[in-house]
Specification:
With 353 residues, this protein is mainly alpha-helical. It is built from 13 helices and 2 strands, in the order ααααααααααββααα. It has a two-stranded antiparallel sheet. α2 packs antiparallel against α8 (171-182) and α6 packs across α11 (259-288). The longest helix has 35 residues, at 69-103.
Length: 353
């Protein structure tokens, strides 16, 4: 579970988050990540408490017990639409944009969507536990390639790019930490959909702790190296700073083209991000409509997601507008709303006593 959550957190963050954080916090973006990890650590007791309240139930059953069947289903539907479904569609569109502009220029994005959705449906027909087991095989590959990328960037690093520290004060650092907390750290709420597969509170808590430090370490090291290589003044037309930094690597005229490693890493983590949110959407909808088997919803949801991914934005410039409002949306649904669930359940339990 820890490895599956880490791959989900890394998702598109390995490619796009350094650019966003540097744009907000400048050369102090690494401080924003450290502060954001500390804030996520404070969230772990909340979700461990919700896990204990669930007592082996699914999220749908937990909400029904807490708020009643009608209101519980409404909350579940609202959360499914605004969090995992949005993430799933936006991630799929990002994958289509990346492949159609950098890899398969003449291939229609819809063809890429169909291929990746077919692979995900096959995996989920095998079950989410099989997907989690596969993460044990693919995580070392992604980790090794990330280490190769970081070591390759050392050749062009200029450590003076970090000075002076906090030149513009603490406000940009706090702004960046809120962005980092929203994306991807607040997605710790998605782990509740795996709670029914976990045996006890201690195991669940360990998975959250390990995924937190693994996620923070990978993103921290990558952001530090991007700042060291490119500095804080990134051009506006560079949405993926980590890939651009990898293109600058050349040692002796023969060690170069390291951006291929970035592409492989990104495909691995994007696949797990998509398949995880895809599973949550189908599992949640099955509970919402009281279906016994969520696998029946895999094909129709895949067919629905293809046109939505193609229509979600007209051009990549819209990403900046989405990034501006995304923290407010996900912090509400992924942190404040679960806090209301936790408090309501406890208050209801005391009332019964």
């Amino acid at each position: 579970m820890a490895l599956l959550l880490t791959l989900n957190y890394w998702g598109s963050a390995l490619l796009g988050l350094p650019s966003s954080l540097i744009g907000v916090s400048g050369k102090d973006a690494w401080l924003s990540i450290l502060l954001g990890v500390c804030l996520q650590i404070l969230l772990i007791p909340l979700f461990t408490g919700i896990f204990k309240q669930m007592n082996g139930d699914t999220v749908g059953k937990y909400l029904n017990r807490t708020f009643g069947k009608g209101f519980g289903k409404a909350l579940l539907a609202l959360w499914l639409f605004f969090v995992p479904f949005h993430i799933f569609v936006l991630t799929m569109r990002s994958l289509g944009d990346f492949t159609s502009t950098d890899l398969y220029i003449e291939t229609p994005p819809s063809a890429i969507y169909i291929l990746i959705l077919a692979a995900m449906m096959y995996c989920l027909f095998k079950g989410i536990k099989a997907v989690a087991k596969s993460a044990e095989l693919t995580f070392p590959i992604a980790g090794f390639l990330l280490a190769v990328l970081l070591l390759s960037l050392l050749h062009g690093a200029e450590w003076d790019n970090f000075l002076p520290v906090k030149e513009d004060g603490i406000r940009p650092v706090l702004h960046g930490s809120v962005m980092f907390l929203a994306y991807p750290n607040s997605e710790i709420a998605l782990s509740l959909f795996l709670a029914s597969c976990i045996k006890n509170k201690k195991t669940y808590s360990k998975a959250l702790w390990h995924s937190t430090w693994l996620t923070g370490l990978g993103l921290l090291l990558l952001t530090v190296m991007v700042i060291a290589v490119l500095g804080e003044n990134l051009p506006q037309n560079i949405p993926y700073a980590s890939q651009f930094a990898a293109k600058t690597v050349t040692v002796g005229g023969f060690y170069e083209r390291i951006e291929t490693a970035v592409t492989v890493i990104w495909f691995i983590v994007m696949f797990y991000r998509m398949i995880f949110t895809y599973y949550i959407c189908t599992q949640g909808l099955a509970e919402l409509f009281e279906l016994k088997n969520h696998q029946r919803l895999l094909p129709p949801l895949a067919l629905l997601s293809i046109p939505l991914a193609m229509l979600v934005w007209d051009n990549p410039s819209v990403i900046a507008e989405i990034t501006a409002v995304w923290p407010t949306c996900v912090i509400f649904f992924n942190i404040l709303l679960p806090l209301v669930w936790f408090i309501t359940f406890r208050a209801k339990g005391r009332t019964k006593q």
